[in-house]
Amino acid sequence: MQTKQFQFKTNLNCGNCVSKVQNELDNAPNIQEWSVDTDNPEKILTVTADENAQETIETIVKSKGFLIEII
Fold it and tell me: What InterPro entries does the record point to (predicted)?
């Protein structure tokens, strides 16, 4: 399967917020790597994952109570 880099605007604005999604993002089988730029005003979440992983990523972040929007 092809991999793709996704970018999302989020409200993951600190290390504590990031830690709330970390376990599920780390353990999702279709996600290879991810990071959040908390210094960016739009709190950009960058994810390298299978090309069909967008919904999985959004579901994980939303399930933890955070906002997420594809860029």
Answer: HMA_dom (IPR006121), HMA_dom_sf (IPR036163)
